[in-house]
Structures are given as structure tokens and as C-alpha cells.
Amino acid sequence: MINLNLYGWNEKLKQLKKESMHRELPHGRISIVHRTCYDVVSENGLFQCELTGNMMYGKSDFELPCTGDWVIFQPFDENKGIIVDILPRERTLYRKKSGSVSGKQAIASYVDKAFIVQSLDNNFNVRRAERFMVQILEANINPILVLNKVDLGADREKINESIKNLARQMPVIYTSIHQPQTILQLREYITMGETVVFVGSSGVGKSSLINALCEKSLLVTSAISQSTGKGRHTSTRREMILMDGSGVLIDTPGVREFGLAVDNPDSVGEALEISFYAKGCRFNDCEHINEPGCAVLEAVNKGKLDKKVYDSYLKLRREAWHFSTSEHEKRKKGKSLAKMVKEVKKRKTNF
Questions:
Q1: Burial of 36 (0-12, 13-18, 19+ CB in 10 A)
Q2: Is 102 annotated among the ligand-binding residues?
Q3: Could you tell me the sign of the dihedral formed by the alpha carbons of 173, 250, 89, 72, in that order?
Q4: Cα–Cα distance for residue pair 19/21, rounded to 1 Å
Q5: pLDDT digit string (tens) for the chain, length 351 residues
């Protein structure tokens, strides 16, 4: 029998299950999402499950099960099942769905910490790390910046200077799979029952770090590309792994683009510390662009606020505003359509 407490099962989840009409059926946590089915870890082992027709066609893409979700399923045959319910999500990491205006994609749910992994080679990008951090904080998940491949000899002093604003918001850890002491330091940030998701671009070494933390080759990794000198993309799916005597790790495929799916544009200012200076603005609705008495612009001009951070803030705020506005309009249209359908049904019953 599998102890689901190690996977994060707790009293709150028990209460949520009691509220389901399927509470008498077994529950489990999704460990891998395949194209048409899901691997579910339950007390009685691993089940490969499909969705009911109502769930498959009655939910938006982002509402479909994702890695980390807790589900209730109906077993049949040997280690097969049908997912009949999804427990309400908490601490879910989303990103804007590629090619959409306001669509979003669920990456992982019930996440406690997120390791933002960057490698200290040509992949290193402070602005990209900021983008991940904003979305992670939006989900009430604790971010940790993991600067990997420190053995490549990057200028640590220069790196520290470039990430000063990030270091005030989250812990920063330098790692290398060739330096075991750094892996031990990283392991200290993971406790039993916690879920940690690894996010970052392709080739930064997420899978290699997970293998090093687990002290075994659980995930496929690739060697450094001889032509580019960069790591190569390996992971093709989101996969959950239980560490011996510790927490749950979720590996994710590298992404070229990580669009913000932020409902509250003001959270960008909080994450990038713009709000700290904005308190001194003359006007409460100051946009921090060209208004008189803007304390944010004053901080930039005096060198208190890094101009690159300010420019990043404007870009991310605009992106978040665009997403949230489009999302609001989509919800408004959905409510109008539902109201219209209700009115039509009402008219039919009156004849």
C-alpha cells in the first residue's frame, strides 16, 4: 500500500473529498499527463486513467487534469480507471497558452515551491527569471532561483550584481551536479510532503538536478551540444517523482516562451518592488510613465531603481493587463451567452 501522505494528502483534502458525490470511490494524485490518459498514484498502486465524456468535452483545456491534481476515479480491470471528479485546485502554476490572447495552460497544482532554474551560460537571463517569479508569486507559491552549472566558471560577483532585485524576493542557490555539496544545499529546501516544481528553459539541467537530488537516474538527460555549447531539451512531459524520505518533485519540459497568465496586473508591481516606490506618488492612479510627482520615475532617475527592472515592469504589466482584460471580456461574453440560453429555455417552457 502506498502512503499518500508522502505525496501531500492531508486533512483539508479529506474534507474536500467528503464534499464530492463520488466520495466513496478511491482517490489519487496525477503523476504524469499523457495525450489521452493520466497516470494516477493511489493507495493501491499506479492506475492509468481516462476521463469521462462529460469531463473531456465539458471543461476548458486549463480545467482538465494537470500534474499534481488530486482526483477521484472508478477503477476497472487491472490498474485501469476512469476519472470522475477533480478536487478543487490550490497553488496552481499557469502560463498563457501559446498562440492565444487569454487562454491559459495549467502546469502543475498543489505546488509549495518552484525552483526557477537557469544555467550560467548563454541561457542566463535575469528578465526571464523575473517573468517566472511574477507568475509563481501570483499563484501563492514560494519561488527559489537556482543558478545551475556554476562549474562553468561564471563571474559570481557580476551575477550577484545583476540579480539584486531578485535576491530580495527569493533565495538564490548556485548548483552543479559536479559539486555534490551544492546538491545537498538544494535538498535542504525540500521537506517531506512538499511539492516542488522545476521550471526553466530547455537545456538548463532540470532533469539532471532531479536525478542528482534523488541519487539515481530517473529522468532521461542529454549531453551538452557540441555546436552551441548549451544543454539540449530532453523532457517532453510533466512528471512527478517522489524523493526517498523527502518531498515530491515535478519536472517540466523547457519552454521558449512563458507568457503571463496574471489576473491582477498590480501584482507585477508588487513582485518587482515598484509598489514600494509607488507609495510616494502624487496621484493614487499614477501609471509611472510620465505623470508629475511620480516617485517611481524619480527613483529611476536617481539610480535607486534599476532602469532595466523598471522597463521589465512596464513590459510585464502591459502583458498582464492585456491578459486580464481579455479574460474579463471572455467571462463577460460567457455569462451573456449563459443568460441568453436560460432565456430561450424559459420561453420554450411557457409555450
A1: exposed
A2: no
A3: negative
A4: 7
A5: 899 999 999 999 999 999 999 999 999 999 999 988 999 999 999 999 999 988 888 888 889 999 999 999 999 988 999 999 999 999 999 998 876 666 899 999 999 999 999 999 988 999 999 999 999 999 999 999 999 999 998 999 999 999 999 999 999 999 999 999 999 999 999 999 999 999 999 889 999 999 999 988 887 665 544 444 444 445 457 899 999 888 999 999 877 778 899 888 899 999 999 999 999 999 999 999 999 999 999 999 999 999 999 999 999 999 999 888 876 565 554 455 445 445 544 555 554
C-alpha cell at 53: 465524456
CATH-assigned architecture of domain 4-86: Beta Barrel (2.40)
Tell whether residue 281 is among the known ligand binding residues: yes
| Beta strands 80-86; 70-76: pairing state | antiparallel
User: Is 45 labelled a binding residue?
Assistant: no
Consult the annotation and say whether 49 binds a ligand. no
208 is in an annotated binding site: yes
CA nearest to 327, candidates 136, 94, 132: 94
User: Is there a common fold for 93-251 and 266-344?
Assistant: no
Q: Is 42 assigned to a binding site? A: no
Domain 93-251 in CATH 3.40.50.300? The answer is yes
The answer to whether 272 and 260 are in contact (CB under 8 A) is: no
The listed CATH number (1.10.260.40, 1.10.40.50, 3.40.630.30, 3.60.15.10) that belongs to domain 266-344: 1.10.40.50
Query: DSSP string of 145-161?
Result: EEEE-GGG---HHHHHH
Q: Tell me the Cα Rg of the chain.
A: 23
Residues with Cβ within 8 Å of residue 181, at least 6 apart in sequence: none
205 is an annotated ligand-binding site residue: yes
Cα separation, 249 vs 186, in Å, equals 12
User: What are the residue ranges spanned by the domains of the chain?
Assistant: 4-86, 93-251, 266-344
